[in-house]
Amino acid sequence: MKWVGEGDAEKHEPNENNVCSLTLGPGLMLDGSTVASRFLHVELELNVHLRRLSFSEPVHYIYNPLEYAWEPHRCFVETYCRGGQSILFLGMNPGPFGMAQTGVPFGEVNYVRDWLKITGEVGHPPSEHPKRLIKGLACIQSEVSGSRFWGFFRKLCGEPDVFFRHFFVHNLCPLMFMGTTGKNLTPPELVIGEREALLALCDMALCQAVAALGVTMVIGVGRVAEQRARRALTAAGMEVRVEGIMHPSPRNPLANKGWEAVAKAKLEELGVLSLLTM
Fold it and tell me: What GO terms describe the biological role, i.e. biological process, of this protein (predicted)?
């Protein structure tokens, strides 16, 4: 049986040279006066609930970058989570060389560091698989999904501010699961009872996050994220449009044949492509 947060994750105190980590002052002074602070509060509350969960086979390792990579995650949210954004891209959960390293959804290191200009120290989860060590923003391995995702929007938008004028990005679940070999396990691969307990908490947090952001559309990146968002928001009685685009994962043969063209066509069909080039 593996508990979330088992052991003590290595964390770093805010760095006085890190502008992002000091935006709201030292510590975790989230007073709810901004969209970003309300959004971060939702995530911190979710962390508290997730620590009470436990997982059995095939799970042997659990990483929560909202714990050990809080500084760059907070930098991302404080920098780019703004009032007036109307559309949320929703991923499922972190990948080993993306958000698990950087704390940023679809967070391929080069795009996070060099295009989004995110900074912050990254610690370590309580227990690390030797094939999935956390290197933070110094990680040299690239995540295909994140590179495709942010690379596509860099081509369309040019600058991050153009993208974040109308859009924000979030993951339904902040946890990454691995088996004994270091193989990534997605939430659908978990034991059904444990999966449902996890996703019930994540669904509730999603509804709170959507309310905090004030978005009117959620675009699930991949079928599972789309389905979970539709189910959660409908059950909560929230009048939010839910749509979906293909996931850029290399596990998806169709994505390997030209994900950018498919994504662009879908965003045009949804009537939001023009918002990325304004």
Answer: base-excision repair
Name the band, by pLDDT with cuts 50, 70 and 90, for residue 15.
very low
Q: Are 131 and 171 in contact (CB under 8 A)?
A: no
List the structure tokens of 26. 């030292």
Whether the predicted pLDDT of 228 surpasses 90: yes
Report the range of poorest mean pLDDT among 31-45, 88-102, 143-157. Answer: 31-45
Say which DSSP state 146 is in: H
Q: In whole angstroms, what is the distance from residue 224 CA to residue 232 CA?
A: 12
Specify the pLDDT at position 7.
55
Q: For residues 2 and 43, give the distance between their C-alpha atoms in angstroms, rounded to a whole number.
A: 22
Report the DSSP pairing between strands 61-63 and 176-178: antiparallel
Whether residue 92 contacts residue 185, with contact meaning beta carbons closer than 8 Å, is answered with: no
Task: Work out whether the CA dihedral 214, 217, 223, 227 comes out positive or negative.
Answer: positive
- Indicate the pLDDT class of residue 2, thresholds 50, 70 and 90: confident
The structure tokens listed for 187 are 């939430």
Handedness of CA 121, 107, 34, 174 (dihedral sign): negative
Distances in Å between the alpha carbon of 61 and those of 65, 182, 187, 197? 13, 8, 13, 18
